[in-house]
Amino acid sequence: MRYLNHINGEWVTAAREEYKDNINPATGEILGHVIQSAPEDVDRAVQAAKAAHKSWRLVPAPERGEYLYRIGQLLKERKEQLARTLTQEMGKVLVEARGEVQEAIDMAFFMAGEGRRLAGQTVPAELPDKHAMSVRAPVGVVGIITPWNFPIAIATWKMFPAIVSGNTVVWKPASDTPAMACEMMKIIEEAGLPKGVVNLVYGSGGTVGNALVEHPDVNVISFTGSSEVGRTIAAKGGQLLKKVSLEMGGKNAIIIMDDADLQLALDGVLWSAFGTTGQRCTACSRLIVHRSVQQEVERELVRRAQALTLGNGLDEHVDVGPVINRSALEQIDKYVQIGQEEGATLLSGGQIAKGELLSKGYFYHPTIFTNVSPTMRIAQEEIFDPVLSIIPVDSFEEAIEVNNAVAYGLSSAIYTNNVNRVFRAMRDLDTGLVYINAGTIGAEIHLPFGGTKHTGNGHRDSGLAALDVFTEWKSIYVDYSGKLQRAQIDNHPK
Ligand code: UN1
């Protein structure tokens, strides 16, 4: 299987015929070969998108929305097949893969409806016989750069609002998940989207991403990925006065208070820390627990974490799939060592999984550290893998303070049955997503998704907020008085 670029409605190879393997992280098996593009391939795609934008911007928005309904319908029909492909190339277990495809379906239908809204404002004018309003105008060509952990859902959070509001797209998917991008592109083609509206360019190592960011005809970059890459994009984009929307890391915590329903809280912690093998930007990697329930929580958590079944996500009995690649295994090992050197206590896991089947893939035992202090590196740095740090605290106030004392601000959660604490937490947890009596993962597509501080740069994916990334506000004044009317002067003569 070869994954090719899709530019101006056609599957094409790149300037140089170089390929990289696509590997199933559960088995080590090679699934296919993905083309490696050069800056000239990006330029071809941008030119195609630019040409397509001339007519796409004039297609009535409800009609643009119709294409999204069709895409949503195709995603729905192919949900099971897409989920299986997703599990094979990314590793998440099948139930979660189905959930991710569902997110893409939801996003298609949500943004399709937006084709009939795209609301601006009509407001009174200061002067007589004058009309004032604001409308959303497309920005032109949009570059989207998406990660491997949610290869289809996150692409739709960006692509669908961009398309419905009249932009055209050049999409660079993550190099670890080319098959999902290919499947998505096939669906876009089948839905009959005019050629050049969405173009797909594969690459790795920053070549394609850089070319997109630097291309003078790309007006907006929307990126989800590591903070390191995000910073580089922000710096380049800033220099070029480009609008850049960044969605980066998290160091998300769940707080368990002394008055919490502990069984419910443990369900939430297990799901948030080890679901998707900890590879969500919303994953819970810190557990802030009130000291009076610490022992009980730890005992039960370790028991339940050790009962999780590791394996190939296609097997419905498996709870935890592999991590994405070999360097992820090395990354976990590095942090396990750091945690031990820092003086944290390793409660569970801390090693690569062995055994005939598991050693073919990239499997790591879910890992739990306790007696972690809030300033340790394992409590501060995003690991993006199944590693949980337990931080004991003595009060609600301390819990909130510890939650907020990290560079990131994506998701946080609290388990408590005290209504005053609920409302204080809603106000004081400094993250873009806040959960009450639920874990840190599972955001819904019709609300804004993103975070404060180093998680992002003030923009949001998903929800109606995503439209702000892909449109410019245009304020329009129509003077039908037939004479010169001077605003702020003729209506205030003195
Ligand atoms: C991500 O981890 O990058 O809220 C996205 C969630 C999912 C999306 C996660 N709906 O956990």
Automatic annotation (TrEMBL):
Superkingdom of origin organism: Bacteria
Function: Part of the sulfo-TAL (or sulfo-SFT) pathway, a D-sulfoquinovose degradation pathway that produces sulfolactate (SL). Catalyzes the oxidation of 3-sulfolactaldehyde (SLA) to sulfolactate (SL).
Domain Aldehyde dehydrogenase intervals: 11-476
Name under which the protein is recorded: 3-sulfolactaldehyde dehydrogenase
Oligomer and partners: Homotetramer.
Active-site feature positions: 247
Classification via InterPro entries: Ald_DH/histidinol_DH, Ald_DH_C, Ald_DH_CS_CYS, Ald_DH_CS_GLU, Ald_DH_N, Aldehyde_DH_dom, ALDH7A1-like
Record EC number: 1.2.1.3, 1.2.1.97
Keywords from the UniProt entry: NAD, Oxidoreductase
A GO molecular-function annotation: aldehyde dehydrogenase (NAD+) activity
Substrates-to-products reaction catalysed: (2S)-3-sulfolactaldehyde + NAD(+) + H2O = (2S)-3-sulfolactate + NADH + 2 H(+)
UniProt KW Coiled coil keyword: no
Family statement drawn from the similarity comment of this UniProt entry: Belongs to the aldehyde dehydrogenase family.
